[in-house]
Design goal:
Number of helices of chain A: 14
Distance between the termini of chain A: 57 Å
Strand content of chain A: under 5%
Oligomer: heterodimer
Number of strands of chain B: 4
Shape of chain B: globular
Largest sheet of chain B: 2 strands, antiparallel
Helix content of chain A: over 70%
Strand order of the largest sheet of chain B: 1-4
Helix content of chain B: over 70%
Order of helices and strands of chain B: HHHHEEEHHHHEHHH
Radius of gyration of chain B: 19 Å
Largest sheet of chain A: 2 strands, antiparallel
Strand content of chain B: under 5%
Order of helices and strands of chain A: HHHHHEHHHHEHHHHH
Number of strands of chain A: 2
Chain lengths: ~300, ~290
């Protein structure tokens, strides 16, 4: 195959793995919590599915399912424990979780291959990856329309108001952690398959930073933003590594800073879009190309 | 005897962690920012000292001062570029955490390029490398220096924050910005001062840690994790708490490495952090009347 095309394919596959990992972080951010736990969940998922593939007769789909379920339960437990902490202390605790996970990966050599890591026995093809991303995306879309989505939005905007409205804030957040665990395990398995290797440094702080950066770029208000963010922060670097060999992190850092300063809502920010659309409509109305209608009325959803 | 020697080792390592934790704590208590870029200041302190030592013929103490000053400048730069716009717009805590991550990875990459990602070390003739005998225990001169510097600087920071007008003003801004402003304090000046002090203290911690060993652009990352553990265990807003937390972490790490297991050393430290976070989120030594939990 054309080397440029091969690189592009690899970039796309990394972007898809990154997108699933970003969605795992997004689920918790959706309920208003910043968590680095995704990296631990990804490690649990990747090592579990690698172990299942090389030591049991389970096929790839079944191994993936079992490890996702395992990591999901792990996520529920972590959420249950950590939710006693308020926002930034919770973020800190998840950082500690990532650090501890690495220590266990290094020391549980019989399962994880220890410091040397392990080769992944069966890798995913481009189409299998795409299928996984579509499934996760579909789950997110379904969640957004469900009661859970509305409750999660409310929890993010104001937990006390949410509680007053009868939303079980803690339960919603624990569920979010469980989902984050399951999705993280899928993402971790994809990442491991793309690297065809899992080691103690595969799932560490660097990955956490990339994942958080993707979610922030995409925005906390719509799940699709995280997919775009992952393309920018994981896919793009792989592709442009042929032109730029070093300094990628400087670009990432500056980009991340620019986003948080100028675009705090992220790229996909429905509220901002609605406001922009309203403003455009208002200017068009002024020019007389459209019959004038009070913008306030339109914002309130009034139709003529 | 071995136990005593390990204990002294632990205290000397802990002193550096304590210094770092104090620097970390200043930023947290005055600006309510969980600054993940703090470790990079330490790396800049050590790296700049290294560059000055290798490129020029200046004596060690002068090189250290230059390195520490550079770290302080980097801290102010990060604060003004990354945090000031967010403060002005009133973005919440999480925004600042993310901005600090951005500063961390960008600044770290600059050093990685500057050193080609290879380990460096202070030239051997510049750093004092002798061994001191104290009552039957051997202590490296670099360790002793780290201990003394840490004690002196931490005391100085404590006096600055709690016994001077500038310190009161800094703490007032950290406690309630608007009221401080009404009382005639310029919050921006105080925040810059705090960033400067914090950067200098952290830079010194980096130089002391780098002391006798070889290090690379990752130096500050390890320090950030240990300092973070220290601050969580000792309590965030308080100089004494942070310092004791650092000392505690150093001793626990050294002792658990020699008596329990070297491989699970980090798991013990961070497991401790998790237990403390879940059990007493404000730190073991924090005052009972802290508002946030």
């Amino acid at each position: 195959m054309n080397p440029n095309l091969a690189l592009l394919e690899s970039a796309v596959m990394f972007a898809m793995a990154g997108a699933v990992l970003a969605l795992s972080t997004y689920v918790t951010l959706w309920t208003g919590l910043l968590s680095f736990g995704t990296v631990s969940f990804a490690a649990v998922g990747a090592f579990a599915s690698t172990w299942l593939l090389s030591n049991t007769g389970l096929g790839l789909p079944l191994a993936l399912l079992v490890s996702a379920a395992g990591a999901g339960i792990f996520g529920l437990i972590v959420g249950r424990l950590f939710l006693r902490l308020s926002s930034h202390w919770l973020a800190l605790a998840t950082v500690a979780l990532v650090l501890i996970t690495r220590v266990f990966v290094v020391n549980l050599g019989s399962v994880t291959g220890g410091a040397a890591g392990e080769v992944v026995p069966e890798t995913l093809s481009l189409w299998q990856m795409l299928l996984l991303l579509v499934i996760v995306g579909a789950v997110m879309a379904m969640l957004k329309r469900s009661k859970f989505g509305v409750a999660a939005d409310t929890c993010r905007e104001d937990p006390s108001v949410a509680a007053a409205l009868g939303v079980p804030v803690n339960r919603i957040r624990v569920i979010a952690f469980g989902l984050s665990g399951a999705i993280g395990a899928v993402g971790g398995t994809m990442q491991a398959s793309q690297l065809s290797y899992v080691g103690p440094d595969t799932f560490y702080i660097d990955l956490a930073v990339t994942v958080i950066a993707s979610v922030v770029l995409g925005g906390a208000y719509h799940w699709f933003g995280s997919v775009i963010g992952a393309i920018v922060f994981t896919g793009l670097p792989v592709y442009i590594s042929q032109f730029i060999t070093s300094g990628q992190s400087i670009i990432n850092g500056v980009l991340l800073l620019a986003i948080i300063v100028w675009l705090p809502g992220g790229l996909v920010d429905p509220v901002r879009w609605r406001r922009l659309r309203a403003r455009r409509r208002a200017t068009r109305a002024e020019r007389g190309t459209e019959p004038a209608a009070p913008v306030a009325l339109q914002d309130a959803g009034a139709t003529r | 005897m071995l136990f005593l020697e390990q204990l002294v080792n632990g205290i000397c390592t802990g002193a550096v962690y304590a210094l770092f934790a104090v620097g970390f704590g200043i930023v947290f208590s005055t600006m309510q920012i969980l600054n993940l870029a703090q470790g990079v200041y330490a790396t800049y302190g050590a790296m700049l000292t290294y560059f000055v030592l290798t490129r020029t013929g200046v004596p060690y103490w002068l090189a250290v001062i230059i390195g520490v000053a550079a770290a302080a400048l980097v801290a102010v730069l990060v604060d003004q570029v990354a945090f000031e716009p967010l403060r002005r717009r009133g973005v919440q805590m999480l925004g600042a955490v993310i901005a600090s991550i951005a500063a961390w990875i960008a600044l770290r990459e600059v050093l990685s390029i500057a050193t080609n990602s290879t380990p460096v070390g202070f030239p051997s003739h510049t750093v004092p490398r002798g061994v001191v005998h104290l009552g039957g225990i051997d202590i490296l001169q670099t360790q002793l220096m780290a201990l003394i510097c840490s004690v002196v600087v931490i005391t100085a920071v404590y006096v600055l924050l709690h016994r001077t007008n500038v310190g009161s003003a800094i703490r007032a801004v950290g406690y309630e910005k608007r009221s401080a402003q009404i009382a005639g304090i310029n919050p921006r000046t105080m925040i810059i001062t705090a960033a400067l002090v914090s950067g200098a203290v952290t830079g010194l911690a980096g130089v002391l840690l780098a002391g006798g060993q070889s290090f690379n652009f990752n130096l500050g990352d390890g320090l950030l994790l240990q300092g973070f553990a220290a601050v969580v265990i000792g309590g965030m807003g308080d100089v004494r708490g942070s310092a004791l937390g650092g000392l505690f972490i150093g001793v626990v790490q050294t002792l658990s490495a020699s008596y329990i297991s070297t491989t699970y050393q980090d798991a013990i430290t961070f497991g401790l952090v998790l237990v403390v976070l879940l059990w007493r989120p404000t730190g073991l030594l924090a005052a009972a009347n802290v508002q946030r939990a």
